[in-house]
Amino acid sequence: MPAPEAIDLSRAPLLSHLLELRRRLLQCLGVFTLVFVVCYMQAETVYQFLLQPLADAFGSTSGRRMIYTGLHEAFVTYLKLSLFSALFLTFPFLLIQVWRFMAPGLYQHERHATSLLFAATPVLFIAGAALAYYFVFPLAWGFFISFESAATENTLPVELEARVGEYLGLVMQLMLAFGVCFELPVILILLAYMRVVSSTKLISGRRYALLGIFTVAAVVTPPDLISQIALGTPIWILYEISILLIKIIERKNPTTFANASKKNHFI
Asked: What is the pLDDT of residues 141-178, one digit of tens each?
């Protein structure tokens, strides 16, 4: 039976890790709460920013309006908008805390590789969200507004009166979808380091990847080809870039990735 001192020593590293994890979680929660409060105080500014693509699609002289049909809808929508904004702004800080918690347990070459991946994660996320905001929204909103019709002698006009909650919910959904999907290179490279995939396997599964990419694009975007193609095409390009990057990594670390290549060769 081990001595009590040995048991205490064996538990000490685990306890220190748990305390470290608790400390970093509290830091993340504190920063997120502070940013959330600031975002809620500036919710009107954020709302106007996200509304701008629709306002541009309507035109500056259209005299359009946004509506809400429930007493609590605008308030709940502003809360969701503040949560979305706080998550978006604190995402890099959260990644830094994850990296600092993981780094002491990694080898030197693993630290270098994961630091680059963690640095690329917020950049890719912001790039995806920016593509949605500056490219997809103007095209998609213009397409949907084109179904309006003017009044005639025998018909009533058909005009869009967008609800605040529905519009901002769609905007946040698309920006998150584009941001998360742009993380594909990071995910694939991590899987390569874990020896789950290899460049050979990704090349052989290209046709299935293409089908999966555009299936996901069809699910997470509105039912229009503009949004689906605008999401699917850059994700496909990132998939091909991921293959090239994994090839480079495999050449620089042939011994490390030899087993994964052999394993995938027979799949």
From this structure: 988 888 888 777 777 888 888 888 899 999 998 998 99
> What is the value of pTM for the model shown?
0.81
* Contact present, 192 and 244 (Cβ < 8 Å): no
Q: Which pLDDT does position 117 carry in this prediction?
A: 82
* Closest-CA residue to 40 (of 3, 90, 75, 1): 75
Structure tokens at 97: 């805390």
Report the amino acid identity of residue 258: A
Rounded to whole angstroms, the Cα distance separating 167 from 51 reads 8
pLDDT, residue 256, reads 59
